[in-house]
Design goal:
Helix content is 35%, strand content 24%. By secondary structure, it is an alpha+beta fold. The protein folds into two domains: 18-208 and 337-421, Zn peptidases (Aminopeptidase, 3-Layer(aba) Sandwich), CATH 3.40.630; 211-334, Alpha-Beta Plaits, CATH 3.30.70. Residues 1-16 form the signal peptide.
């Protein structure tokens, strides 16, 4: 036990010597501010801000905007056309001449719409807090705010160039028009840092998969079920099943590629409502199905992987069973964030910082284990890093939690990383 104590003491002294006096001051400030930081987190978690709850998203945005105002940022609300049915985005900026120009990314919305039961912020125990969006990603937004507050208290934000962009529809994007301003502002910066959920202290995200959608429509001859396999052919449902199974057989083992058929309906008639994502079908067991509809998503790491998959899926669709005709269409969503040497260089910087803080090494998180995110929209223009927010488990579920022991350490690391990049 005596030797363990001496080892920990020496490790602390060595790590402390690796940090500058201003950096030690930032860490002390983060620790001092933690009660108010956690209180603010609880406040925003307790406001429902499901993507379609525009009032809730704006309310959370106003609370965060007020915090940025206090820090000397210029804040504005980016409105979107009414036709998109989204609340808009919060932007906070400051211009200076020191270091890199940073683009910090978060989002105000959650997957929990107002129609769902409210799960308030709750301290489960000394290491866990729960609540809607507590980790994904109100905890990440608060990491940004608390880190900047600590830097500001130490006069370390002076003459820096930082743009903070918290979107209002990350969980259900309104499409390219909703990200036009986001991309244009990012292009004026040098580095993008995104504060989606961290996978603990030992990894960050240098690459993440993109997401797009596809729709399969199948038409076939219909009539009495006794004539299936003969003069009526195979019907629409058999053809849909053939295609889906061939997708799985041909593409199902490719690394980083997934394609999920999330909805399938078939029968004599099919009606699908895009706005409500609801389908209705009419059919009888003694009638060969004349139509089938399948809707799914396609996730990929690179644009080349996406296009190759689409080509193979089209080829499979074209090989129709007798007397059936299928078509497939694709719609782009969020691009992939391809791992790059520039992104890994950012990871190496975080790795050094983490070691300097005595927190240990930082590796690149498996890109196949992450979904799509806003950072991917700007990944082609600059080096990017993600997974810098709060750590937790159970995102997008009633079991979502945040690790409260790692929370202050992640704030400290974020603050010091911003400090080092802006020197």
């Amino acid at each position: 036990m005596k030797y363990l104590f001496l080892f920990l003491l020496v490790s602390h002294i060595v790590s402390a010597q690796s940090l500058s006096k201003p950096e030690m001051g930032v860490i002390a400030t983060v620790k001092k501010q933690m009660p108010e930081t956690e209180a603010f987190l609880g406040k925003v978690v307790n406001i429902n801000s499901g993507t379609l709850n525009k009032e809730g998203v704006r309310t959370v945005g106003k609370l965060m905007s007020d915090e940025f105002d206090k820090l000397g940022f210029k804040t504005e609300w980016v409105t979107l056309p009414d036709s998109l049915n989204r609340a808009g985005h919060l932007v906070a900026t400051r211009q200076g001449k020191k270091g890199k120009k940073l683009f910090l990314i978060g989002h105000l919305d959650t997957v929990f719409e107002k129609s769902l039961p409210m799960d308030p912020f709750t301290r489960v125990n000394d290491s866990t807090a729960s609540g809607q969006g507590v980790a994904d990603m109100k905890g990440g937004d608060v990491v940004v705010i608390a880190a900047l507050k600590a830097l500001n208290a130490q006069k370390l934000l002076d003459d820096t160039s930082i743009t903070i962009y918290f979107t209002g529809d990350e969980e259900s994007s309104a499409g390219p028009e909703s990200r036009r301003d986001f991309i244009e502002r990012a292009k004026k910066c040098d580095i993008a840092l995104a504060f989606e959920t961290a996978q603990g202290l030992s990894s960050v995200t240098t690459g993440r998969r993109g997401s797009s959608g596809w729709t399969l429509n199948v038409k076939a001859r219909t009539g009495h079920s006794s004539r299936i396999f003969s003069d009526l052919g195979y019907g629409a449902i058999y053809e849909a099943v053939r295609i889906l199974n061939e997708f799985r057989r041909t593409l199902g083992q490719e690394q980083y590629l997934t394609f999920n058929p999330g909805l399938i309906v078939g029968g004599s008639e099919v009606h699908y409502d895009e706005k409500t994502a609801k389908a209705e079908t009419i059919g009888k067991t003694n009638i060969v199905a004349g139509t089938a509809l399948v809707k799914g998503d396609l996730r990929f790491l690179t644009e080349a992987q996406k296009e190759n998959a689409r080509t193979k899926m089209r080829e499979i669709v074209d090989k129709s069973l007798p007397l059936t005709k299928a078509t497939i269409s694709f719609v782009d969503g969020i691009p992939g964030m391809e791992p790059s040497a520039a992104n890994d260089e950012l990871r190496k910087q975080v790795d050094k910082l983490s070691r300097d803080m005595g927190l240990g090494p930082v590796s690149a998180f498996d890109p196949g284990a992450r979904g799509a995110g806003d950072v991917s929209f700007v990944a082609q223009y600059m080096p990017c890093l993600d997974g810098l927010g709060a750590s937790g488990k159970g995102a997008h579920s009633i079991e979502e939690t945040m690790n409260t022991k790692e929370f202050p350490l992640l704030i400290q690391r974020a603050a010091l990383y911003i400090y080092r990049l802006t020197r």
